[in-house]
Amino acid sequence: MLKTILLLGGTYEGRSLAQFLAGFPVHVTVSVATAYGEELLSDAENISVSRKRLDLSGMRSLIASISADLVIDATHPYAVLVSETAKKACELENVPLLRIERPSITENACCQNQIQDPPASRLSPEHLIRVSSISEAACFLNQTEGSILVTTGSKNLSDYAGISHAIERIYARVLPTAEAIEACRNFGLPGSHILAMQGPFSVEMNLAMLHYTDARYLVTKNSGKAGGFLEKLSAAGQCPVTTVIIEPPDRREREKITASRLKDAVNSPRSFCEYYGNYEEAVEALKLTICPY
Description:
Strand order of the largest sheet: 3-2-1-4-5-13-12
Helix content: 25-40%
């Protein structure tokens, strides 16, 4: 029987899952890396929070200390290291792992009508640059001129250091935390180039920031609908902006989650198995596993 879950969260999906599970007879420990992530979680009697960054040893200890029946990895699609650590910890602790996959937006969707109105008339292929990493994005931007609105967070700002006149050109949109602002300061950005605020952001807000920064380039991760990617594209389509899209890392194909597979995983003798599914699929499987009747 599914009694205890370790939820690796901090994302929209993680917070939504915690809220969903708050109404069921299961104890959930939500692991977040920052105090800010903890603040975004709602209070519930069966929800507790572990706020610290976990290496392999720490994650194994947490899994063992709460006797987790299941680990749910609802971290950001680009948090590859955390996901790899979670998988290894689950293998060593013989606990099933469920990875929540956030659908990314395809290239066709970027250039067609799957973004919000008004139509993004300028979103033609020549205004979309697709790369596989921040380093590749920086190499491209080093060959350009004009202001850059970076929306990929504060942790990887140093990867943009090689861009010509980086400090003068880059505006960084980051979370309103002391840690994020310190990272911007350490990078050398002046206060006027630090846009510290919490999303989600509307098309209008994205458009206002592009105008404020006089951006010629917008750098974004393909973080899917939940990550506000469509709103960025729609805003970019109304400006003379080239959008540099960092695609999510490739992930090995795993078995798709179903209620029957999840039941078998948590009811059988403890052993590692790995499933994946989007948020809606995970909710349905969890609901039928926790309350099968």
